[in-house]
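Recap from last week: sequence in, structure out.
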Amino acid sequence: MDTDSPEKEDDEERRDEISESGSVTAGKPGHRIHCLTIIGQIEGHFILGSQNKTTKYEHVIPQLVAIEEASDIDGLLIILNTVGGDVEAGLALAELVSGMKKPTVSLVLGGGHSIGVPLAVAAKHSFIAPSATMTIHPVRMNGTLLGVPQTLEYFQRMQERITHFVVGNSKITEKRFMELSMNTEELVMDVGTVLDGPDAVREGLIDSLGSLSDALDCLYGMIDKRRKKTVRPRNKEKK
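Predicted structure tokens:
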């Protein structure tokens, strides 16, 4: 009687997990990590067209909760290559990541633009590839808008929420972040700044320049450090 080996079953489960959710759990015992990919546009309350590559925030939210509660997962690696998307949905995901107790590391590949910036800095340590870029610009919306003072106030308050989150989870100052956001001398048809990998690190937006192996080494080190802290010392014998 032919039976599939445990290794083959694990490979099949891993392939199914990647194809269904764009994520995978891998690693060795004691260093089990979950790799979550955030790519394309972040889809929020409105469904985007079928031609768009999207990350649906209602799919990511339960994954983050499950990762935080799973006893067999020791850390989270977030791979980012996003053009941005729904501001509130992206900020909601960033808040969840920043509130996790487990070790988290982000790696920006290709791009981490717009609302992808808060997602990148939400991890406890962030990396960016040398060839990757991050676009920083103020909040804007498509579609019909009411030309009233309340609309402008809403945009301003939303921008403050994003700015405070980014500043609170990175080394960049609020003044410098706003200077980069409101830059009118770089983009031809837009306001903002494009930072490549080294510039993003130099500005204090991203922690380190690196690749996949660097991100994994950092995450493994954080897992080991956390494990040492949770090991309780033996109770001393009473005299």
